[in-house]
Amino acid sequence: MTLQEQIEKDFLVAYKAKEEVRVAVLRMLKTAAKNRQVELLRPLADEEVLEVIARQVKQRQESIEQFRLAGRGEMADREAAEMAVLKGYLPTQLSPEETAAAVDAAIAETGASSAKEMGKVMQAVMAKHKGRIDGKVVNELVRQRLG
């Protein structure tokens, strides 16, 4: 079963169970995936669906930060609930220790020694751990190591 099929199945289950937040999130996710499919003019592979989900999670994270800054706690809580549903479809994220080890390995692998080579290291880490690692965290670690 593809990831899109699983999302469709979960949507129907949530709809029948009247799970309001889950239904809304999965409906938005299905729409985002469909839009991406139309852009590419072909069906999406699971990897591409994961990219769409990751983008949705990132949007929720940014919204949570903005709502908290504006003192809108209930809106931030709703976004957090939506983000939790989305994260259920993503592969497990690397721990901080695993992330640091991945950055160190990429620096050794690429032979990077200065901040000018940061792009090479970032590219190596992100390609190897696609969808399982946070780019912002990697960026900070690489900057610290090469800084």
Structural class: mainly alpha
**Spans with pLDDT under 50 lasting ≥5 residues?**
none
User: How many β strands by DSSP?
Assistant: 0
Number of helices: 7
Q: State the separation between the terminal residues, measured CA to CA.
A: 45 Å
Binned strand content: under 5%
Please specify the SSE layout and strand pairing.
Elements: H1 3-16, H2 20-40, H3 46-69, H4 73-87, H5 96-110, H6 118-128, H7 135-146
Helix pairs in contact: 1-2, 2-3, 2-4, 3-4, 5-6, 5-7, 6-7
Describe, in plain words, how this protein is organized in 3D.
By secondary structure, this protein is mostly helical. It contains 7 helices and no strands. It has helices at residues 3-16, 20-40, 46-69, 73-87, 96-110, 118-128, 135-146. α5 (96-110) crosses α7. It starts with a helix and ends with a helix.
List keywords for this structure.
single chain, 147 residues, mainly alpha, 76% helix, globular
